[in-house]
Amino acid sequence: MTSQEKAEQFAGKAPPLNQAERDAINALFPAYIFRRSCTNEIWTTCCRKHMVVTDEDMMVTTPERNFPAVMWGPHQREQRNRWDDAPKPTTQCPLCGRMVIVKELRYTGGRDNLSRYRRAVVLRWYRGALWARAYDCGKHYTAGYDLAGDPTYKLVGVYRFRPGLAEATTRSWYGDSPFGHIEKQDGPLTKGRWNIHAPFSANADYGIGYDVIGLDEIQESPFRYCCAADFRLSGSRLLEFLTACCFYPRQIEMLMKAGMRDVVTDLVHRGVKHATVIDWDDPKKAFKLNRQDMKTFLGTSRDIRILELHKRLKDRVPLMQCAEWISRGVDIQKTASAAKKWNIPMEKLIRYLDGYVGCAQYGGMQSIGSALRFWEDYLTAAEATGYLLHRENVLLPRNLGTAHDEATKKHQAKLERERAAQQREWERQRKAAQAEHDRQVRLAEEKYEERRKKLEKKYGFTMDGYVIRAPLGKDEILAEARKLQHCVGGYADRHILGQTTILFMRKVKKPDEPWLTIEMNGNKLVQIHGFKNEGLHTTKGRFAPDPREVYREFLDTWLDWMEKGSRRDKEGNPKLPKKKGAAA
């Protein structure tokens, strides 16, 4: 038999829904009375009845059976969507007495917004085990659905709980997928989380909670003393709670009755057992305390951290003192880490910090945790400025506030000196880099004429009254920037160093008058602009057309000529192909 077949067989053993459970699920949904005034018909969703209201019914006006209030009361408008939880006026159902919302059918349209989805876990003590069946339930009132019908049910999970064994099989919340396989928890939790989990985690559209029906069925099971009704108030984790009850019933009973639901919550939600202070193997020694200490602990707030602190301090500190420190905000983990780092007994450190709680002159510290942060802030500054922290009077100064202020002031002064030195170093490096850059530019300028000739050979071009040429030098690029009022001046050094290529496009009749500036990357035209970049980067937009479009034919011919090797005739003029249709 395959795992899927075993899962289907396991799910088939679960008890089916009885009428009482169906009624309880139906009660989870909002109650409506739909009426059709022209025929005197009503449909009740609370008690799921369809009837015609007679004249005799209209004569009865008792509070429990008031048909006129239903038939003559105002129609209550449909909510905007399924998340619209605005309160609606209600009246009493004349058949079952539940408060309902009255709706006139001719005003309700398609009733799409009345659809609701709920999740329900139904418990039943059945054949020697506590069964839990998880359902995705829906209620719809659109065309094709019976207005007085039952909700729709989809079984998405089956659970069986017995002492020492929890079993479950679930399936996807969407589609009609079968049950996959059986999950088992057949031993106490050793590490991580429980194998058994709720089946509703995927459908986050409607939240992850669920309603529990049949909670009183637990009273028929071996878990009757585990206070499941109280735990249910802490969230929708009842299935995991019942799994834990299969293995730790007496321990959970004691913890719940002792008002320590947070410990049970840690076990159920996160798999945290607080094993240093809770004995999960022997219920008789669950708290690892003698009779007197147990009596003392029950007289405190019963916070598990009291026991953890008492255990961490190796029972040297009375429980009442630990309870007082917990109430004053001690952070056990951080305090223990700090004590270990600085090699101080934890008890001594807590007593030291506790002396500064509530002292306004030390920053108004309201808890031991805030005092710990204040002390660690002092240590950070003291360590950075070279204090001898191996000495106890330096590590735990008599006046922490004064010591903190002095150390912080020295640390701040040291940081300012380091920042100033770093700033001077950055400035020195910047000047050195600028000097090196200027030196390289001067060397490149000395050899620029040779590079300019190569640029002219590759890019120099004349056609149709336009000419493209290379700049004569850096000064000509700067003059171009001043005349055309654009940013080519910032490219002058890069052009001289060969990091980019700047060219001038001029008119043949005015070869020395700045007109258009070109940037090239090899044979690729990067950009071409004229006066003020044609207004491209202004808030008012362009005041002149794009030169790429205006001189497209000239530029395309030039770029194509370069792609083919910048061929020239004997006189050095560009060698262009003959245009089609030209005379031989």
List the helices and strands and how they pair.
Elements: H1 3-12, H2 19-26, E1 32-36, E2 41-44, E3 49-52, H3 55-59, E4 61-62, E5 65-66, H4 67-72, E6 91-92, E7 99-104, E8 116-126, E9 129-139, E10 152-162, E11 165-170, E12 183-185, E13 211-213, H5 228-231, H6 238-245, H7 249-257, H8 261-270, H9 291-298, H10 304-312, H11 319-327, H12 332-341, H13 346-354, H14 368-384, H15 392-395, H16 400-446, H17 448-459, E14 461-463, E15 466-469, H18 474-484, H19 492-496, E16 501-507, E17 516-521, E18 524-529, H20 547-550, H21 552-563
Parallel strand pairs: 1-7, 8-13
Antiparallel strand pairs: 1-2, 2-3, 4-5, 6-7, 8-9, 9-10, 10-11, 11-12, 14-15, 15-16, 16-17, 17-18
Helix pairs in contact: 6-8, 10-11, 14-16
What gyration radius follows from the Cα positions, in whole Å? 43 Å
Main sheet strand line-up: 12-11-10-9-8-13
Q: Enumerate the spans where pLDDT stays under 50 for 5 or more consecutive residues.
A: 202-207
Overall form: flat
Distance between the termini: 92 Å
Helix count from the secondary structure assignment: 21
Main beta sheet, described? 6 strands, mixed
Mean pLDDT rating: 89
**Share of helix among residues?**
25-40%
